[in-house]
């Protein structure tokens, strides 16, 4: 039996000033380190929660020589832990952006990156069509990083609705899957907890979900309720509402094998022919 791994999850109400958001992250990560956390996850769009595309363009940088990336690298090294930036917008050459998650090692090295695969394109009843793909370029590669703590699978927000991604991460060796997010209040109330618990149960992984919460400077409201779910589906840590702050949990890797032995869904999975049209 191994020792449980202490982790922290940061809930934020990110604004439109990257420097202010980064200062808050620095303060909270240092506080988490003092309490013994060895891994900290922040929400989706932690560095800038822009009001519109013009603001996104004006305040986002390319990946190369990115000032926020350098600052986060230094923070991980100073705190001596794995710092997982849930995501930030990265300017791309074609005028769009990548919604990119980044993992920094305790020595400050950039250990892995992941670009959000699933983009929300929808025709909403009574509203103008929403096209996330007009602003963001979707990623094409699932990412599982091997760390000294655990196998870490990457996802971002809307990805959680696509169970095949989570199964692929678990089959690749993920023991913990991160879900940084910025859920709206109505969808959060309806789907946040049940989807995250389902992803934990079906994969036998720990699900670590860091959320944006509250009324933001850009006028949006997000749901909050960051949480950590164990492989059997029970919530072992949860933010009480949408206020910014840290929650802490212990990741007991022995619970993964125990859950997968009780319900060996990964081992029992079979390929099958697609349904025909009758």
UniProtKB/TrEMBL annotation:
InterPro entries: C-N_Hydrolase, C-N_Hydrolase_sf, Nit1/2_C-N_Hydrolase. Pfam families: CN_hydrolase. Gene3D superfamilies: Carbon-nitrogen hydrolase. Residues 5-253 form the CN hydrolase domain. Keywords: Hydrolase. GO terms for molecular function: hydrolase activity, acting on carbon-nitrogen (but not peptide) bonds, in linear amides. This is Amidohydrolase. It comes from Pelagibacterium lentulum.
């Amino acid at each position: 039996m191994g020792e449980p791994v202490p982790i922290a999850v940061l809930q934020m109400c990110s604004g439109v000033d990257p420097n202010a958001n980064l200062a808050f992250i620095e303060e909270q990560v240092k506080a988490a380190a003092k309490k013994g956390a060895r891994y900290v996850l922040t929400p989706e769009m932690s560095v800038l929660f822009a009001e519109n595309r013009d603001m996104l363009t004006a305040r986002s940088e390319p990946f190369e020589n990115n000032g926020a990336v350098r600052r986060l690298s230094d923070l991980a090294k100073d705190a001596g832990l794995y710092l997982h930036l849930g995501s930030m917008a990265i300017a791309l050459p074609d005028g769009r952006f990548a919604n990119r998650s980044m993992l920094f090692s305790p020595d400050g090295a950039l250990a892995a990156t992941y670009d959000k695969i699933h983009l929300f394109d929808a025709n909403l009843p009574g509203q103008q069509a929403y096209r996330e793909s007009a602003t963001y370029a979707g990623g094409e590669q699932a990412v599982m990083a091997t760390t000294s703590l655990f196998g870490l699978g990457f996802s971002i927000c809307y990805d959680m609705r696509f169970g095949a991604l989570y199964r692929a991460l678990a089959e690749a060796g993920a023991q913990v899957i991160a879900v940084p997010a910025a859920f709206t209040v109505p969808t959060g109330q309806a789907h946040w907890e049940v989807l995250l618990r389902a992803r934990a149960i079906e994969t036998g992984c720990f699900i670590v979900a860091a959320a944006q919460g509250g009324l933001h400077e850009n006028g949006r409201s997000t749901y909050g309720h960051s949480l950590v779910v164990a492989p059997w589906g029970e919530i072992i840590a949860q933010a009480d509402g949408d206020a910014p702050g840290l929650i802490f949990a212990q990741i007991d890797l022995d619970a993964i094998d125990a859950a997968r032995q009780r319900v060996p869904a990964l081992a029992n999975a079979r390929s099958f022919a697609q349904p025909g049209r009758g």
